[in-house]
Amino acid sequence: MTDFADLDALAAAVGTELGVSDWMQIDQDRIDTFADATGDHQWIHVDADKAAQGPYGHTIAHGFLTLSLLVPLSNQATTVGGIRMGINYGLNKVRFITPVPSGGRIRARVHLDSVTEIPGGLQAVRTVTIELEGADKPACVAESIVRYLK
């Protein structure tokens, strides 16, 4: 984890890796809860018997479940002090590359691509790579925009 004292320290880190989160297990209960919250009950996510006969041989997490964990995982990788708040401002690009199996473990690797001054703070563009333990390719890669306000 990288802890920045303030926005100046963050701005000085452009072009570097900010940190890596802890591993998080994605169990079937989390997948089912996400399905209930979103109304997306596609069998590949929630029906273990049918999914066993499908393309992956088991249930997989929703891509948007993996994406939704970007914030808490990124917050484990880096913090910024001296701010009033950080705001998730959106995403420029998202790709779901490798499915996350039920029981799989993911973590976030955060790279600071750029910072831009905005009224009252900085806007940071970060590439967040959600790694899947044991996989050759990441589960997800997202270009995330965060606004840090003083």
UniProtKB/TrEMBL annotation:
Residues 12-118 form the MaoC-like domain. SUPFAM superfamilies: Thioesterase/thiol ester dehydrase-isomerase. InterPro entries: HotDog_dom_sf, MaoC-like_dom, NodN-like. It comes from the Bacteria. Belongs to the enoyl-CoA hydratase/isomerase family. This is MaoC family dehydratase. It comes from Nocardia veterana.
